Amino acid sequence: MNDPIMITWLNGPDVKALELTNDEILGAVEMGLQAQGLGKTVIEPRVHLIPDPAFNGHFNVLRGYIESINLAGVKVVGDFVDNYKQNLPSEMALLNLFDPRTGKPVAVLDAAGITDMRTGAVTALGAKYLAKKESKVLGHIGARGTAYWNVRLLDHLFDFDEIRIHSRRPESRQAFADKLEQALGKSVIITDDWESCVRGADIVVEASRLNQPEPLLKTEWIKPGALVVPYGTMSAVELSLTDIMDKMVVDDWGQCKGGMFGSLRAHVEAGKLSKQTLHAELGQIVAGAKAGRENDRETILFWHRGLSLSDIALGHAMLEKAKTRGLGQQLRYA
């Protein structure tokens, strides 16, 4: 008789109880990026499911494989803009991990937290390699789930003198600022408009939640030498933004060059961001195959669409820590 096949289930409370540190999150995601840069991964462009346009949301399906940790994975994440009206997070997700040699299921994890953490980690790691080392002013647009980890992990690396935030709804701005101040132990500046948040900042992150493209972030506000990280689902930047960049970096060109969503979709379609104008994928920089920032004068753009590899790497780190803490449930598959 065959032995039963068991899978590990980590739910939301389990993930929270793991208490992953900033360095554990960054380390796991950086490992995945390095593996990508070394050609030791497989990543497929995400696909989308829109159940009904009236629902104002869609599902993303991300797929990948990392050789060094012997895992393949598929994450399904919903992105529904109006969920706040029902007191639900805009993004909820499940990560499924498999043995890549047999297809045997290994684990299922609540990936809402993973999505937020790994997105913030990729933002922060992009800044680690692409921002000025002495960056002291952060301008952050957006207050959705990923925003907290953007700011937390960026501040962990840079210890900002000034953190400015803005979002569409005043109540979300205040709640976001309160959460950040409690977590970081420093004051946060709430701005009433995009310009006062962004102008003159060393690092600019645009994670807005627009219903349709609208150029709210003006190119003239970006100071020379800044790093700009736009990753909203809908474009909030001017078409001229790429014209001032000395380098343009993405997380995965295969995902960035196609699909219906993304903050720089119009720039790809206009030929302003192309394989020819692209400097590198971040993984190539992490692996040492391409240069990151080379001087303080460079103005650099980093666009990330979200990597299945980061989900898988972080999911693996969570499974390993869960073993040491006795967290999670074993469920019988067969």
TrEMBL record:
<dbReference type="InterPro" id="IPR036291">
    <property type="entry name" value="NAD(P)-bd_dom_sf"/>
</dbReference>
<dbReference type="Pfam" id="PF02423">
    <property type="entry name" value="OCD_Mu_crystall"/>
</dbReference>
<dbReference type="InterPro" id="IPR023401">
    <property type="entry name" value="ODC_N"/>
</dbReference>
<dbReference type="InterPro" id="IPR003462">
    <property type="entry name" value="ODC_Mu_crystall"/>
</dbReference>
<dbReference type="GO" id="GO:0005737">
    <property type="term" value="C:cytoplasm"/>
</dbReference>
<protein>
    <submittedName>
        <fullName>Ornithine cyclodeaminase</fullName>
    </submittedName>
</protein>
